[in-house]
Amino acid sequence: GDISVVADAFKQKAQVMTPQLTTYRQNTEMLGRQAAVLLIQQIENPRITLPEQQVVSGSLQPGASTAAPRR
Fold first, then answer.
1. CA 59, CA 32: separation in Å to the nearest integer?
2. pLDDT tens across 12-42, in order?
3. pLDDT value at position 32?
4. Secondary structure of residue 62 in the 3-state scheme
5. Gap between the Cα atoms of 3 and 21, Å rounded
6. Residue 9: its pLDDT value, please?
7. I need a surface site. Which of 21, 27, 40, 61 has the fewest CB within 10 A?
8. How far apart are CA 16 and CA 26, in angstroms?
9. How far, in Å, are 8, 27, 33, 47, 67 from residue 15 at the CA level?
């Protein structure tokens, strides 16, 4: 069967691979900011909490490692 590959790695590494990998670029600055805010909240208000989901946008950087499904 056919396989498509998407990596969440650094785009620079993906560009030198053959075929060029499709990557998902995360907004790492926003990830860091949100992590810092959550950490400060935990330090200032320690409590037992349930896991919390945080959504940070990103973008798909097409390469040659993915294709539309065959029909």
1. 17
2. 776 677 788 888 888 889 889 999 998 898 8
3. 92
4. coil
5. 12
6. 61
7. 40
8. 19
9. 13, 19, 28, 44, 17
Task: Please count the other Cβ atoms lying within 10 Å of the Cβ belonging to residue 12.
Answer: 8
- The Cα angle at residue 52 between residues 26 and 5, in degrees rounded to 5: 35
Q: Residue 18: what are its φ and ψ, rounded to 5°?
A: -125, 120
pLDDT at residue 10 above 90?
no
> Could you tell me the pTM of the whole model?
0.57
Alpha-carbon span 70 to 5, nearest angstrom: 15
Q: How high does pLDDT run on average in the chain?
A: 81
Indicate the residue type of 68: A
Q: Is the CB of residue 9 less than 8 Å from the CB of residue 58?
A: no
